[in-house]
TrEMBL record:
Lineage of origin: Bacteria, Pseudomonadati, Pseudomonadota, Gammaproteobacteria, Arenicellales
Start and end residues of each Major facilitator superfamily (MFS) profile domain: 28-463
Keyword tags: Membrane, Transmembrane, Transmembrane helix
Molecular function terms, GO-annotated: symporter activity
Similarity comment: Belongs to the sodium:galactoside symporter (TC 2.A.2) family.
SUPFAM superfamilies, per the entry: MFS general substrate transporter (SSF103473)
Protein name per its UniProtKB record: GPH family glycoside/pentoside/hexuronide:cation symporter
Amino acid sequence: MKVVSTRQLSGNLAMNRTSDNSPLSFKEKVGYGLGDMASNFYMGFFGLFLLYYYTDVYGISASAAATMLLVTKVVDAISDPVMGLVADRTKSRWGRYRPYLLWVAIPYALLGYLLFLGPDFSAAGKLIFAYVSYTLVMLAYTAINVPYSGLLAVISPVAEERTKVTQYRFVFASLGTLVVSSLAPFLVAWLGGGDELRGFRFTIILFAILSVVIFWVTFATTQERVAPTLQKTSVKEDFSALLKNRSWAILVFVGILVVVGLIARFASIVYYVKYYLVDSGALYFWFMSKTAFLSSCGLIGQLFGALCTPYLTSRFEKHHLMLLMNVLHALLLVACFFVSPDDFVLLVLLHSLGIFTFGVVITLLFSMYTDCVEYGEWSTGKNTAGLTVSSSMFSLKFGSAVGGALPGFILAGFGFVANEVQTDTAVFGIRLMFNFLPAVFFLVSGLLMLGYGLNRQTLTEIEADLQQRRASA
């Protein structure tokens, strides 16, 4: 019997994966999409409730919590690119990126629980605990989500298939955040029995367990079909190749701005409803308070936006859609500022339409990141999917941190005092941070797309050329 060496076998497998241009199965699309649901069980929870938890439940001042959310991003500035470089150089029987879904899921779950443990320390002790626990959970998020996002670039060599998978990703991302926004307030109240700290602690346990199971499902149902040449370049060469990618650089800034806008608005919802609409937290619809109902309707809008994206991209250039949707979102946010506190239904409608446009934008954004990976490989000869995506992920995490921190600074600047009747000045600040602040970020991000250089025809030519190169290799 002929013995085949490991190197020969790996080469044959790589050739097979590289030449596999067949459409992805429904099972694999769903499996990949579920991974972002697991991510959003945490990130959606943090975006909606973490600032409120720190200020109104755990007793940290708004300015201190906001500063913490920003300062801890220094760690991400290092950890995200490092994780991308590590993933690009990983060799295992499961591929480069998939193994991390298996290995990191449990640490990710445990550190999420630690974040809401809420030990009864002094004011300084609580702040130190917040710094440490938030930094650790963000490191775990990096270790699992950078490879997860990198997997998108190698799941298929066909740009159209990656766009379809991206749609599934953000449909399930929307569903994950929708589950959080609709159920979390109810679970916190029910499991806490009047003790919000206890309620947050038990609620995050449920989402942690679900996250582990779902990440393992994603691992089991996906494949890496594109097997680029093993990275033999230096870190400096990889970064040099990345920085030459102008389209990627524009997307990074767009990603920061849209996430700042979204998270600033979402982090403001609970304050807007509690202090501007003067809502007591009583049930408004079924098991949902007004906060939960407003958040949930917006996320249903995001879900429909993700679902509509393939239809829209079949008719329009991606960067044109990005420009249109961002500007439209900004206009809807400005309109929200003038809605009376008594006209809650109109507020829900405008908010939902705005988040619909974000559903299109975020789906396009990650699809365009993978386009930039292919453009980078085509123009420089170096495939840096992990580094490209990890650097992009840092921009999104940085945007998330800034978006979560800005409302804290605005609250402090306008004289907000937790759990008290607010002054007119404080209420005006809450209205600004809920409406005008995010509108500015969405408007600027839309205008940036005027400089994006990749269109459908260019990408088709790049894809065909890369397939020929890989086949020859």
